[in-house]
Design the sequence.
């Protein structure tokens, strides 16, 4: 819309300048404009744009471990609700994630640390059952916090040495 308005004002200004000259264009040193109109192409129109603020999804989340005893069941909490299609069990997902221990909040794994997303089928055997149950239903473009009990993660034996 800016371009037509600017172009119109250039044409209006040019017409007003020509009208002020008057006469038939036969005065000494005066040449008539070509029949096509402008003798030069107008300069390109540029518009300033304000860069969009960075998405909250572009920054590594800070995980706050709740106080009290760990839950015995899966807890899902949408921090940002996505607007794309929902993930389902068996579908291929691409995620950025941070894994922290409930006990002390120490980070045991993170795709952010490697600066690389993680792509996998959302199936038991590819990921822990807590992810299969916890990510299913999450929409593309969202951020979800999962608190996963040992029975839906690595069990009583953990995944030494990082997960007790």
Sequence:
């Amino acid at each position: 819309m800016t371009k037509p308005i600017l172009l119109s004002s250039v044409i209006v200004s040019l017409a007003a300048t020509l009208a002020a000259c008057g006469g038939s264009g036969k005065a000494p040193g005066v040449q008539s404009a070509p029949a096509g109109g402008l003798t030069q192409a107008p300069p390109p129109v540029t518009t300033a744009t304000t860069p969009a603020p960075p998405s909250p999804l572009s920054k590594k989340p800070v995980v706050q471990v709740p106080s009290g005893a760990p839950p015995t069941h899966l807890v899902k909490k949408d921090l940002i609700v996505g607007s794309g299609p929902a993930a389902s069990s068996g579908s291929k997902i691409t995620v950025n994630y941070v894994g922290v221990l409930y006990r002390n909040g120490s980070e045991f794994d993170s795709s952010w640390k490697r600066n690389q997303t993680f792509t996998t089928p959302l199936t038991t055997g590819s990921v822990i059952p807590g992810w299969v149950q916890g990510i299913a239903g999450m929409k593309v473009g969202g951020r979800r916090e999962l608190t996963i009990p040992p029975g839906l993660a690595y069990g009583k034996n953990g995944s030494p040495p990082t997960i007790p």
